[in-house]
Design brief:
The protein has one domain: HIT-like (HIT family, subunit A). The protein contains six helices and seven strands. The chain has helices spanning 27-32, 46-50, 55-58, 97-118, 155-158, 169-180; strands at residues 8-9, 15-16, 60-63, 67-71, 81-85, 122-126, 143-148. Helix 4 (97-118) packs across helix 6. The radius of gyration is 18 Å and the shape is globular. It starts with 7 loop residues before the first strand and ends with a helix.
Length: 183
């Protein structure tokens, strides 16, 4: 382990620690709550704003009539996506029958797509209902689909408090969006 007295400042952008730490600077935006709506109104909701953007820029995998699939900007694993209703609704019990059905169908299809692209061994699927339950954006319901592989939890998340993602989100989005058309 390098002694702190041996660490060298490099151009004011950080400290050279000989790769003894792995950095995940993209997580800081999440920690700070950047782009998180300040109220429950649709105009401040990132899920409502996403659908107005180009699919590749918004990381949208596929669009349905009632819901869409989008990569999580702060993923737990590669391919971590969310199925989101277009309608700004907070509670699962408030979904219409058509929204509930398409959310379920998109979840099934997303599982098939991710398996075909990455060979996922399993999935964590769920939604946090309300702030108290851990919902980061409680005002707009969204279901998480996190692919899992045998041995995907190791010392990195346990000791290093970070997750290593082997590809860029744009690359993951392209793989899943292309596979969505054929699965």
């Amino acid at each position: 382990m390098t002694d702190e007295s041996e660490l060298v400042e490099q151009d004011g952008v950080g400290i050279d620690d000989a790769l003894q730490r792995l950095w995940t600077p993209h997580r800081l935006a999440y920690i700070k709550g950047e782009n998180k709506p300040e109220d429950d109104q649709p105009q401040g909701c990132p899920f409502c704003r996403l659908v107005e953007q180009d699919d590749a820029d918004a990381l949208i995998i596929a669009r349905g009539v009632q819901v869409y699939a989008v990569l999580n900007l702060y993923p737990y694993n590669p391919g971590h996506l969310m199925v989101v209703p277009y309608r700004h609704v907070a509670d699962y019990t408030e979904l219409t029958e058509a929204e509930t059905l398409e959310l379920a169908e998109f979840t099934q299809r997303a599982m098939r797509v991710i398996r075909s692209v990455s060979g996922a061994h399993g999935f964590n699927i769920g939604m946090n209902q309300g702030v108290i339950a851990g919902a980061g954006i409680a005002a707009h319901l969204h279901q998480h689909l996190v692919p899992r592989w045998g041995g995907d939890s190791n010392f990195m998340p346990v000791i290093g408090h970070t997750k290593v993602l082997p590809e860029l989100l744009a690359e993951t989005r392209t793989l899943l969006a292309d596979a969505w058309k054929s699965v």
